[in-house]
Specification:
About 35% of the residues lie in helices and about 15% in strands. The chain has about 350 residues and is α/β, with parallel strands linked by helices. The protein has a 5-stranded parallel beta sheet. Strands 2-1-3-4 form a 4-stranded parallel beta sheet, sandwiched between helices. Strands 10-11-12-13 form a 4-stranded antiparallel beta sheet, with no helix packed on it. Helix 3 crosses helix 4 and helix 5 crosses helix 6. It is globular, with a radius of gyration of 20 Å. The model has no long low-confidence stretch (mean pLDDT about 95). The structure holds N-carbamoyl-L-aspartate. The site of N-carbamoyl-L-aspartate has 12 residues, from helix 2 and helix 6.
Length: about 350
């Protein structure tokens, strides 16, 4: 049983709760000074096993602006991880030093694995190519600020939909609001994983798959560009083949609606021409700024809400079955129970969502 306010996946909170966090972020944005003492005396640990600029610094700036303090590392080779310490031991200890722990890790399902042993709230700041719920809160706040709504949107998602964790969490979230429609723009090799497509279907929403930006741009309310996730490819030659397929140019923007916005979780490599930055519809820098306010709201919410006691693993334990995802946290953290949701002919790994055919 766990009695912390973890944010591992979007469904840890209900839609009204996301709305509450976003509304709080809007209020904070208007008047940040008013919140300067909300986390006085509290400590947040940021453990970043993978590179980060915005996520890490916006979390740290958020905590400092709330009057709290920060500890942590941004390079595991400077910590005992370099001596061979497992995730469990690092989290067990650091979570006793802190009130809230924010972790980014290379392995899928690592945030859930951390929450299983942590002695404080755990926030997933990205677990491999799996999920990135706090980027999604940033994206929802941006949509709210720029377009005034989270429903009735036609959203284009372009680039690396396979490994782009921000896309996975965003699609999950936007699927919970009525009448949203998705246009998935990718090469067949980098298509959205089927477990995310199933979420769209389960909400009775529509999606189409196209190969070019040109086919989609005219009908979109928002175009979400993403970087090809080089670090997730097993083979760099495959990355080389995929890397320059999509580029949003000023010329393409001429075909977009005057009220369409362009979002990108950043960092950009070359999927948006720099000349697009001056277009008022380019919302990605405003989006990055929203990240700090939404994280202030999330930290406050996490600290003040009465935790709902619930188990983190609800499936069946099959210790003889191994998850087939080579990037799943269970591959290296051998002490973890192999927990799966049984869907009849498949087992779904409770850490990384991999489906295993029986
Ligand atoms: C994204 C990430 O880390 O998944 N960046 C971010 O958090 N803003 C996107 C990316 O790295 O491409």
């Amino acid at each position: 049983m766990n009695n912390f306010n973890n944010l591992i996946d979007m469904d840890d909170y209900t839609v009204p709760q996301w709305n509450e966090i976003i509304e709080l972020a809007e209020k904070i944005k208007e008047n940040p000074e008013e919140y300067g003492e909300k986390c006085k005396g509290k400590i947040m640990a940021t453990l970043f096993y993978e590179p980060s600029t915005r996520t890490q610094m916006s979390f740290q700036a958020a905590m400092i602006r709330l009057g709290g303090n920060i500890i942590g590392f941004d390079n595991p080779s400077n910590s005992s991880v370099a001596k061979g310490e497992n995730l469990k031991d690092t989290i067990k200890i650091v979570s006793t030093y802190s009130d809230i722990l924010v972790m980014r890790h290379t392995q899928e399902g690592s945030a859930k694995a951390a929450a299983l042993v942590a002695d404080c709230h755990v926030i997933n700041a990205g677990d491999g190519g799996h999920l990135h719920p706090t980027q999604t809160l940033t994206d929802l706040l941006t949509l709210k600020c720029e377009l005034g709504r989270l429903d009735n949107l036609t959203v284009g998602l372009c680039g690396d939909l396979k490994y782009g964790r921000t896309v996975h969490s965003l699609v999950k979230a936007l699927s919970c609001y009525p009448n949203n429609k998705f246009v998935l723009i990718s090469t067949p090799d980098l298509a959205l994983p089927s477990y995310i497509k199933d979420v769209i279907r389960a909400h009775g929403l529509e999606f189409t798959e196209v190969k070019t930006i040109d086919e989609a741009i005219k009908e979109l309310d928002m175009l979400y560009m993403t970087r090809i996730q080089r670090e997730r490819f097993a083979d760099d030659s495959e990355y080389e083949r995929q890397k320059n397929v999509y580029c949003l140019t000023k010329a393409k923007m001429q075909y977009a609606r005057r009220d369409m916005i362009v979002m990108h979780p950043l960092p950009r490599v070359n999927e948006i021409e720099v000349a697009v930055d001056d277009d008022p519809r380019a919302a990605y820098f405003r989006q990055a700024n929203n990240g700090m306010y939404v994280r202030m709201a999330l930290i406050m919410y996490t600290m003040t809400r009465e935790p709902k006691i619930k188990p983190l693993l609800v499936g069946e334990i099959h210790n003889k079955v191994c998850c087939t995802n080579p990037k799943c946290v269970t591959q290296t953290e051998e002490y973890l129970p192999h927990s799966f949701i049984n869907r009849g002919d498949i087992l779904v790994c409770e850490y990384c969502d991999e489906r295993i055919l029986l």
